[in-house]
Design brief:
The chain has about 150 residues and is α+β, with helices and mostly antiparallel strands. The chain is built from three helices and eight strands, in the order βαβββαβαβββ. Bound molecules: (S)-Methylmalonyl-Coenzyme A. One of its GO terms (biological process) is L-methylmalonyl-CoA metabolic process.
Length: about 150
């Protein structure tokens, strides 16, 4: 079951300048940043709020790390802006299978690694009214050591 907006992915040319815009304009701080080589992005996660399912919603700022990446291709064509939305679920495998059964193309055979150790897959934008849609299961929260 999809229970939250996990994040909105925003493509940008210059991650540091875009982070500074969100900080100076809205007061949002970087919660986490990483490079995802497989996806070809450098990203910053700005946490907006906790959600009632125990997760959270983020803005995800994305700068491409190589010209053949999905985000670089999209920026070439569209310029900066909203690249995708991501719904959070406790079970990305089950939700992806159920959505596939409804005739929507799921882009990965098996979920791949996403931000902060999450497991992610994508739905084809052409099957989702023009919106590239991601499904995310967050990494389990580490229990504190005793
Ligand atoms: C492409 N299209 C989009 C789109 N990207 N439409 C809406 N939103 C987008 N983001 C449209 C194009 O305009 C084009 O339509 C058609 O889809 C084919 O696009 P293309 O430019 O020829 O590119 P393809 O077919 O090679 O690839 C598109 C596809 C790809 C969606 C399959 O971008 C993909 O696999 N994306 C999933 C991975 C991804 O985006 N990773 C970056 C975020 P027309 O009408 O011109 O034919 S990584 C991430 O987000 C991770 C780190 C995380 O959340 O943790």
């Amino acid at each position: 079951m999809l229970t939250r907006i996990d994040h909105i992915g925003i493509a940008c040319f210059d991650l540091d300048r875009t982070v500074e815009f969100y900080r100076a304009t809205y007061g949002f701080e970087v919660y986490h940043s990483e490079v995802n080589e497989e996806q070809g992005v450098r990203e910053a996660m700005l946490k907006i709020n906790e959600t009632s399912d125990g997760g959270a919603s983020y803005l995800q700022l994305l700068e491409p790390t190589r010209p053949d990446s999905a985000v670089a291709k999209w920026l070439d064509k569209n310029g900066e802006g909203v690249h995708h939305i991501a719904f959070g679920t406790a079970d990305v495998d089950a939700d992806a299978a159920g959505i596939k059964d409804k005739g929507v193309r799921v882009l990965y055979e098996e979920p791949r690694r996403g931000s902060m150790g999450s497991r992610i897959t994508f739905l084809h934008p052409k099957d989702c009214h023009g919106v590239l849609t991601e499904l995310v299961t967050s990494a389990p929260v580490e229990s504190p050591e005793h």
